[in-house]
Amino acid sequence: MVHITKKDLDKDNYYKDSGINTTEEITCDENLGYIKFKKSVITTKSIILGLDCGIEAGCGIKAGDGIKAGWGIKAGDGIEAGDGIEAGCGIKAGDGIKAGDGIEAGFGIEAGCGIKAGCGIEAGYGIKAGCGIEAGYGIKAGLSIICKRILKFSYQLFSGTCTWRETKEEDLIISCGKLETDGKIILGNLIETDIPEEVEKIKIINGLKYRLVEDDNNVDGEVNHDNWYGFNKWRELEESSWNRI
Fold first, then answer.
1. How confident is the model over 149-159, as pLDDT tens digits?
2. Is residue 176 domain-shared with residue 211, that is, in the same domain?
3. Rounded to an integer, what distance in angstroms lies between the CA atom of residue 44 and that of residue 79?
4. 160, 188 in Cβ contact below 8 A?
5. How far apart are CA 172 and CA 6, in angstroms?
6. Share in percent of the chain as helix, strand, coil (round to 5)
7. 33-86 per-position pLDDT tens digit
């Protein structure tokens, strides 16, 4: 087990190492505040941070099992868990958020790319994704639900369920490029904006320009959900995926 104590943190609450890559469970003492990492936090097991503790990583956060924090969970890149992701405060990722089980936040959930949960997604505040949102079960948000691509869920969806103040019209917004569901919107007003066209992907390799060849291994969108949800930053694309132009 990797257990973090106050002695492992500097005056700015950064961990003694730039990141963690382990096959052991990651835990910590209580009341440490936000534990900060300059790079990634990766484990094949769970990340469990207790009372008054959160996590901030400059790169990604990845756990083979679940991720749980008394406060918030924040990553510069993606957040991924084989089981559920649970935060007492908010969950925010520069890229995608992906959980084999449910995703639950006391505050809001925000991802630069997509959000995907094997079960339900629930946020005390709003849910926002730069790409799509997909839940194996239902979705519930205290405020609005917004994504630019496909919104997909089963069973029921609720937006604007906040109880700490009077619900406003903007809290009921459910905005997406396209809705795909066998479920039902119980609360909220749907706005479909159409899916934006893909921007052509150009990369410079050794001073030469290459265009991305989209196939089943690297295409954005529904063919490869790993790339759709932004997790391609966990690994570099092979040069063979690119054609010189």
1. 999 999 999 99
2. no
3. 14
4. yes
5. 42
6. 5, 45, 50
7. 999 999 999 999 999 998 999 999 999 999 999 999 999 999 999 999 999 999
